[in-house]
Specification:
The complex is a heterodimer of chains A (about 425) and B (about 400).
Chain A: E1 5-8, H1 10-13, H2 21-36, E2 40-46, E3 51-54, H3 69-87, H4 90-95, H5 98-127, E4 143-146, H6 154-167, E5 170-175, H7 179-182, H8 192-205, E6 208-211, H9 214-227, E7 233-234, E8 262-265, H10 274-287, E9 294-297, H11 305-313, E10 321-324, H12 329-338, E11 341-344, H13 353-360, E12 365-368, E13 381-383, H14 388-399, H15 401-414, H16 420-434
Parallel strand pairs in A: 1-2, 1-4, 4-5, 5-6, 6-7, 8-9, 8-11, 9-10, 11-12, 12-13
Antiparallel strand pairs in A: 2-3
Chain B: E1 3-8, H1 18-32, E2 36-44, E3 56-58, H2 66-70, H3 72-82, H4 84-97, E4 101-105, H5 110-119, E5 126-129, H6 134-144, H7 149-169, E6 172-175, H8 178-186, E7 192-194, H9 206-218, E8 223-228, H10 233-242, E9 254-259, H11 262-270, H12 275-278, E10 283-287, H13 291-300, E11 303-306, H14 316-324, E12 327-330, E13 347-349, H15 353-365, H16 373-378, H17 384-387, H18 389-397
Classes of the chains: A alpha/beta (about 425), B alpha/beta (about 400).
Chain lengths: ~425, ~400
C-alpha cells in the first residue's frame, strides 16, 4: 500500500513578513507539491504537545499566505530589537567592544527565545483542550519531507529522530548549505553549535537528502566523509525562480534614476561581502572612473558595523552607494526591471537566489565565481570575490546603458526560468523512489 | 637483605600511566621477594601533583614550548648532574642507602646519573629497566608533534648514544617485549630478561557500577566503549588514526568514553572547528578518574578499544582489557607481547581505521561472548606476579 507524503510547514507558521530564501522555498515547494501529488498532506510540529499535527489542507488555496499572530509578534520583536540597536549612532557603535556586542546579541536572542517560549506555554494551555489539533501518526511507508530550518528546533529534531527509530518511516531533508560549518568565521558565535549537529543528524537519519546545489552536495559529502557517516540517497534540487511579482512599484532610492543605477539584494552581513562593492567604488573614485550608483537593499546584520559606517560616511562613495531596507515585493520587481545591473559579490553561498532572480528579470548580474554561484547560469558575469578591480571593470561596463541593454536582450532570449511546478514534479518522482 | 635503589623520571605515588604502574608493581614484587627497595623519582613537579618520600620534585623555570614539554624527561635527567644541589642530593641518597644494586627506569635519569656514578666509582651491579626502545619512541613522538628535523635529530642522537651505552654497561637489561630484547642483544647487552607488562585484579564496586550504568541508561545510552589512556601523545595519535572524528558509524545509543589524560588531548584536537559540536554526539570526554571509578567504568563497559599505532614495549592497557573479559578491538601493535590472546573470541584485531571501526560495529552486534575455563585460567598469566617473575630469578643471580 502506498503511503503519504507529509510536508512539514512549521517554517511558515513561525514566519511572517517578506518571504526570504528558506520560507520562499517552503512556501513554493509545499504549494506546488500539494498540487501535483495527491498523496501530499501538510503538517507541522507542535512543540507545546510535542507532536506532529495536521495542518489545514487548504492552506495554499488562499491568495495571501495566512498570517500567524505569534509569528508576527516574534518577528516584530526581532525587528524592534534590531532597530533599537541600530538607533545607536554609528560612531558610538564603533566604540562598543566586540565582546559587549556579542553579549548584546545573546541578550537579544534570549529575549526572543523567552518570548517565544512564553507564548508557546500559553498556547499549550489552550491547545491541550483544543479539539482541532489532530496528531499525525506516521507509518513505515510514509515519507516526511522537512524543507524548513530544522536547526532552529532542537526539540523537533529529537522528536522526529526518536519517532523514526521507533516507526521507521522515511525522512527527506532539504539541505541549504554548510556555510556555518565550513565558513564558520562569517557568523558570530552561536549557530555552528546547533547547525553542525543538525547536519550530522540529518545525514545519519535521512533516507533522502536534497541539497540545493552541486556545491552544497559537495560540502555535504565532505562533511559525511569527515564524520564517517554513511551517505543516504542524495538528489540535488534546483530552486524555482518563475514567480516574479507582476505588480511594479517605484520605491524611493535616493538617486537620480534617469542616470541609471545598479542593485545588490540581500541582508548586509560579512559573508555577503559588501566590502568589495565599497572598494570597487573607492578604486573608481581614485582612478576617476564613473560608475552608476549601487543601491544595497537589505537590513544591516551583525559583523557589518564598520562597512556600513564607511559607506555612510566616506565622501568618495556616500553618493554612489545607498543602503535601503523594508522594501515590498512590488518594489523589488521595479528595481530589478529598471536596474542597469545587479551585483552579488558573496564569498560563499549554498545557492544564490538573487542571481537567478536577476536573470528572470533580464537584469545583468555580476556575481562571485565561488561555491554555488557559478552553477546558476552561464549568463552570470563571474568575478573573484576578492578582486575589487575586476568588480569595478564589470560595473563600469554595465554602467553604460547600451552594454546593459544588450545583455538584457541576450538574457531575455537565452535564460529559461525554472518553475516550482517542475521541481515539484521531479521531487514527487524522487520521493516515490524511496517509498 | 640486598638493597636496590631505583631511579625513575616520575613518581609512583597514585600511579596513573603505564610506566608508573609497571614500576609500582616492580617495587612491590622486589619487596615481596625479600629485597629492601628505595624508589627515587626525579621529575618536573608541574607534571605530577603527588610526590613520594624520596622523590626529587624539581621546580623548573624554563621557557615552555612543545619541544621542551616533550623532552622534559631528558632535561630533568641532565639536571641530576648539572644542577649542583640535585647532584648533591642524589649522591647523598646513594651514600646513605648504600645499595647493592642500582636500577634505572627508562634511560632518562642516566643522562645525569652516568656522571654521578663515575664520580662515585660505582662498581656494583647496574640494571637498566627498559619500557621501550626509547630513542625510537621519542623520534615518533617528536615527528608526530611536528618538531623540525634538525632539532629532532639532535635530540634523538643524544638519546640513542646514551641508551646504547646504558645497555652495554648494565649487568642486567629488563625489557617488556621479545623484539626489544633482540634489539638490545644486537647492541651488545650482556644479560637480558623479558618481563612483559601485566595487570592487577580488577576492583569490583557493584554499587558505583550500578549507579553509573543507571545514569547512562537514563540518558538512552545502552552501549559503552572505553578508551583508557594517559596524556602520552601516541595515545592521541592512535585514537585519531583509528577513529578520529569518524564517529558516524556508531548508533545514537552508543558512546565512546575517553578516560584519562588522553581525553583532554583529543578534546583539544577537535576544539578548533565544527567537530567540537558533532563528536560529543557519540564521544564523551570523561578525563581523569579515580581507580575506583575507572574500575566501575570497566565493569559496565561493553567494549574496550586499544587503538595503539606506535610505541614500543607492551601495553599495560592491553593486559587490563584482557583481564576484564570485555569485548576488545585492538591494533596489532596493542597486542604486541600478548600474541597468545589474539585468538580469544572476545578479541578482534584491526590494522587500519576502516577495519577498526568495522570491527567495533561487528563486535558490538555480537552476543555476549563466554570464555572457556582454559581461556579464563590462562588470564592469570597476565597478573604482575606472573609477568615479573623472570626478573626476580635474574636478580638473585646477579
Amino acid at each position: 500500500m502506498s503511503g503519504h507524503i507529509y510536508i512539514d510547514i512549521t517554517e511558515l507558521k513561525n514566519w511572517d513578513g517578506h518571504l526570504t530564501g528558506v520560507q520562499r522555498l517552503v512556501y513554493n515547494l509545499a504549494k506546488e507539491l500539494k498540487e501535483v501529488d495527491d498523496r501530499v498532506l501538510l503538517c507541522s510540529y507542535n512543540p507545546a504537545q510535542n507532536i506532529i499535527q495536521f495542518e489545514d489542507q487548504s492552506y495554499f488555496s488562499q491568495n495571501e499566505k495566512p498570517r500567524n499572530i505569534e509569528a508576527i509578534e516574534t518577528s516584530k520583536l526581532k525587528s524592534k530589537l534590531t532597530s533599537i540597536y541600530f538607533k545607536i549612532p554609528a560612531e558610538t557603535r564603533q566604540k562598543i567592544p566586540t565582546n559587549t556586542k556579542e553579549a548584546i546579541k545573546r541578550v537579544g536572542r534570549k529575549t526572543i527565545h523567552l518570548t517565544h517560549k512564553t507564548k508557546l506555554a500559553l498556547q499549550s494551555k489552550s491547545s491541550k483542550n483544543s479539539i482541532n489539533i489532530q496528531e499525525v501518526k506516521l507509518e513505515p511507508n510514509d515519507i516526511i519531507l522537512i524543507p524548513g530550518r530544522l536547526w532552529d528546533h532542537q526539540e523537533f529534531i529529537n522528536y522526529i529522530t526518536g519517532y523514526k527509530e521507533k516507526v521507521g518511516f522515511k525522512l527527506a531533508v532539504v539541505i541549504y548549505d554548510l556555510v556555518p560549518i565550513y565558513q564558520q568565521h562569517t557568523f558570530g558565535p552561536g549557530l555552528t553549535d546547533r547547525y553542525a549537529p543538525y547536519i550530522f543528524q540529518s545525514v545519519y537519519y535521512a533516507d533522502l537528502l536534497l541539497p540545493i546545489s552541486e556545491s552544497t552536495k559537495s560540502d555535504l559529502l565532505r562533511f559525511s566523509n569527515e564524520m564517517g557517516l554513511k551517505v543516504p540517497q542524495v538528489k540535488v534540487i534546483r530552486l524555482g525562480d518563475d514567480n516574479p511579482s507582476a505588480i511594479l512599484k517605484q520605491p524611493e532610492i535616493g538617486v537620480d534614476i534617469n542616470k541609471g543605477f545598479g542593485i545588490c539584494i540581500g541582508t548586509i552581513e560579512a559573508r555577503k561581502n559588501h566590502t568589495l562593492i565599497y572598494y570597487a567604488y573607492k578604486l573608481a573614485a581614485s582612478e576617476g572612473v564613473e560608475l552608476a550608483p549601487t543601491i544595497i537593499i537589505g537590513k544591516p546584520g551583525w559583523l557589518t558595523d564598520n562597512i556600513v559606517y564607511f559607506i555612510e560616511h566616506d565622501s568618495d562613495v556616500k553618493e554612489k552607494i545607498k543602503i535601503i531596507s523594508n522594501i515590498t515585493d512590488a518594489e523589488i520587481s521595479w528595481l530589478y526591471k529598471n536596474a542597469l545591473f545587479s551585483v552579488y559579490p558573496s564569498q560563499y553561498e549554498g545557492w544564490g537566489l538573487p542571481i537567478a532572480e536577476s536573470l528572470v528579470y533580464g537584469t545583468p548580474v555580476v556575481a562571485s565565481n565561488t561555491s554555488s554561484m557559478k552553477e546558476i547560469s552561464d549568463l552570470t558575469d563571474l568575478i573573484s570575490p576578492f578582486d575589487s578591480r575586476e568588480l569595478m571593470e564589470r560595473l563600469k561596463y554595465y554602467s553604460n546603458k547600451d552594454n546593459s541593454f544588450k545583455k538584457r536582450q541576450r538574457i531575455s532570449k537565452e535564460y529559461s526560468s525554472h518553475s516550482w511546478k517542475s521541481l515539484a514534479k521531479t521531487l514527487s518522482r524522487v520521493l516515490s523512489s524511496i517509498m | 637483605m640486598k638493597k636496590i635503589l631505583i631511579f625513575g623520571s616520575y613518581p609512583i605515588e597514585d600511579a596513573q600511566h603505564g610506566g608508573q604502574k609497571r614500576v609500582e608493581a616492580i617495587v612491590k614484587t622486589y619487596k615481596t621477594n625479600g629485597f629492601l627497595v628505595r624508589y627515587v623519582g626525579v621529575y618536573d613537579r608541574s607534571f605530577y601533583p603527588k610526590t613520594g618520600k624520596h622523590d626529587i620534585a624539581l621546580h623548573i623555570d624554563r621557557k615552555f614550548n612543545l619541544t621542551s614539554a616533550l623532552t622534559s624527561d631528558m632535561s630533568v635527567g641532565k639536571l641530576i648532574y648539572s644542577d649542583l644541589k640535585v647532584r648533591g642530593r642524589v649522591k647523598l641518597l646513594i651514600n646513605e642507602f648504600d645499595p647493592d644494586i642500582i636500577e634505572i627506569e627508562q634511560v632518562f635519569p642516566y643522562f645525569g646519573l652516568a656522571e654521578v656514578l663515575r664520580e662515585l666509582r660505582w662498581k656494583k651491579p647496574l640494571i637498566y629497566n627498559s619500557q621501550n626502545i626509547e630513542y625510537d619512541l621519542k623520534d615518533k613522538i617528536l615527528k608526530g608533534a611536528g618538531v623540525n628535523n634538525e632539532e629532532r635529530k639532535a635530540i634523538i642522537d643524544d638519546i640513542f648514544s646514551l641508551e646504547r651505552e646504558l645497555v652495554r654497561v648494565s649487568n642486567l637489561v629488563i625489557t617488556c617485549t621479545k623484539s626489544d630484547s633482540e634489539k638490545y642483544q644486537s647492541w651488545g647487552a650482556k644479560n637480558i630478561v623479558c618481563a612483559p607488562n601485566g595487570t592487577s585484579e580488577l576492583i569490583r564496586n557493584s554499587k558505583l557500577s550500578e549507579k553509573l550504568k543507571n545514569e547512562y541508561t537514563g540518558e538512552g545510552i545502552n552501549k559503552l566503549i572505553l578508551f583508557i589512556g594517559s596524556a602520552h601523545p601516541p595515545n592521541e595519535t592512535g585514537f585519531m588514526d583509528m577513529i578520529g572524528s569518524k564517529i558516524g558509524f556508531l548508533k545514537p545509543d552508543t558512546r565512546i568514553l575517553l578516560i584519562g589524560g588522553v581525553s583532554e588531548l583529543i578534546r583539544q584536537r577537535f576544539s578548533v572547528d565544527y567537530r567540537q559540536y558533532c563528536v560529543p554526539l557519540r564521544v564523551e570526554f570523561v578525563g581523569r578518574v579515580s581507580e575506583e571509578k575507572l574500575a566501575a567504568f570497566i565493569n559496565i563497559a561493553d567494549m574496550i578499544i586499544l587503538p595503539i599505532v606506535e610505541g614500543g614495549g607492551s601495553n599495560i592497557k592491553t593486559a587490563e582489557a584482557l583481564m576484564s573479559g570485555k569485548k576488545i578491538v585492538a591494533t596489532p601493535i596493542a597486542m604486541r607481547s600478548f600474541e597468545e590472546f589474539k585468538q580469544y573470541p572476545n578479541v578482534l584485531i584491526a590494522k587500519d581505521g576502516v577495519q577498526f571501526r568495522d570491527s567495533i560495529s561487528l563486535l558490538l552486534r555480537s552476543p555476549k561472548l563466554q570464555l572457556s575455563n582454559t581461556e579464563i585460567s590462562k588470564l592469570d598469566s597476565l597478573k604482575w606476579e606472573s609477568t615479573l617473575l623472570p626478573i626476580v630469578g635474574a636478580l638473585k643471580e646477579l
